[in-house]
Write a structure and sequence with these properties.
Layout: H1 6-20, H2 33-52, H3 54-58, H4 67-92, H5 98-106, H6 124-141, H7 150-178, H8 182-201, H9 213-218, H10 226-244, E1 254-256, E2 261-263, H11 269-279, H12 283-296, H13 298-319
Antiparallel strand pairs: 1-2
Bound molecules: Phenylacetyl coenzyme A.
């Protein structure tokens, strides 16, 4: 890395002071190269998560149990596509192209959330994703509405409103199942059993192993640590599970009178890292599906480019 010039040093100090004072950083502002890099990393991975995240639920669109449920699910999956688009646009303001980001996803150099590498085996999984995964996403993402980088913060405001609706539809679906027949209740419990730990892991490695947290909290990209957000999710969800009459699959779950929080048993970090490194139950399937969608969409991209070129030529002719 090039040594910092005196001019850079002055800019860096002004940048740090601006961020410390809750100022927003906008695309044309000077920013440290590492700030730009970590934002491109996080925002693009967040966008990829939204796009890959359409697959587990999309799996149930044709098998939803009623027209009403199908319409709701289709709207939700479309919302996720929209979130991906806002986030790719926010990342583009940092100088990376959509093609570059897509390439990084397809060649495996960019990550996406571990949670979307688990299968949706029953209809109750659609409810569990809304309740737990969107619930976790809200807790993680509401603080990002106050992120120091303006375009990311603004994209998150709308995304969080939609995630909140998603969470409620998931909870309502789980409520219908858990108040239904014995078989439906068992299906809801089975979904909770399979999604609980992956949802707890979604918040990322423990604070001791989180490489980006310290710097990104200083830059006000992140506002809370992975473990603090995870704890908030656990405290909230334990109460919700009780109101559904479902059991959290953790024999060590206990309320800690001293801290006022729920303690959980050990997290299987080997499983987390295996999934992050591509060895989860569905990693290969998710990427094959994404690659096929990319290849099948080539003609759409070509047609859009040809149309744009024609429009530009027409505008140039009219201007001449
Ligand atoms: N999965 O140093 P940290 C959704 C990686 S959207 C995979 O702690 P950081 C909506 C991390 O990238 C869900 N990898 O990292 C929806 C880093 O590796 P790198 C996505 C993970 O960035 C619902 C390494 O581990 N949400 O659910 C994971 O400070 C339903 C070290 O970690 C966001 O992306 C993981 N779970 O904290 C859609 C929110 N965790 O990059 C469809 C924005 C960590 O150096 C259906 N992102 N890693 O190669 C964030 O808040 C942060 O990036 C964290 C990770 C908290 C995810």
């Amino acid at each position: 890395m090039d040594p910092m010039t005196a001019e850079d040093q002055v800019r860096r100090e002004a940048f740090d002071a601006h961020v410390a004072d809750e100022g927003k950083v906008e695309p044309r502002d000077w920013m440290p190269a590492a700030y730009r890099k970590t934002l491109v990393r996080q925002i693009s991975q967040h966008a990829h998560s939204e796009i890959i995240g359409m697959q587990p639920e999309g799996n149930w669109v044709t098998r939803a149990p009623s027209l009403r449920r199908k319409v709701i699910l289709m709207a939700k999956v479309q919302d996720e596509a929209g979130h991906g688009l806002y986030l790719y646009s926010a990342a583009e303001t940092l100088g990376v192209t959509r093609d570059e980001m897509e390439q990084q996803l397809l060649d495996g150099t960019a990550k996406y959330s571990s949670i979307f590498n688990y299968p949706t085996l029953t209809w109750a999984d659609v409810g569990a994703i809304g309740w737990l995964v969107d619930g976790a996403a809200i807790i993680n993402q509401v603080p990002i509405c106050r992120c120091s980088y303006g375009p990311y913060a603004r994209a998150m405001v709308r995304i969080c409103k939609e995630e909140s609706f998603h969470q409620r539809q998931g909870f309502e679906l789980m409520m219908a199942l858990s108040r239904g027949t014995e078989k439906q209740k068992a299906m809801a419990q089975d979904a909770l059993d399979r999604w609980w730990w992956p949802a707890v892991m979604m918040f990322g490695p423990s604070d001791a192993d989180s490489v980006h947290s310290q710097q990104n909290m200083a830059w006000k990209i992140k506002r809370f640590s992975n473990d603090d957000l995870r704890q908030k999710f656990i405290d909230m969800t334990v109460k919700q599970a009780a109101s559904l009459g479902l059991t959290i699959p953790d024999p060590d779950l206990a309320f800690n009178q001293e801290t006022g929080h729920w303690d959980i048993g050990p997290i299987d970090w080997d499983e987390f890292w295996a999934v992050v490194k591509g060895h989860g139950p569905c990693n290969r399937q998710r990427m094959q599906h994404r690659q096929a969608a990319h290849d099948n969409g080539a003609w759409v991209r070509e047609a859009a480019m040809a149309f744009a070129a024609k429009e530009r030529a027409r505008a140039a002719r009219e201007a001449a």
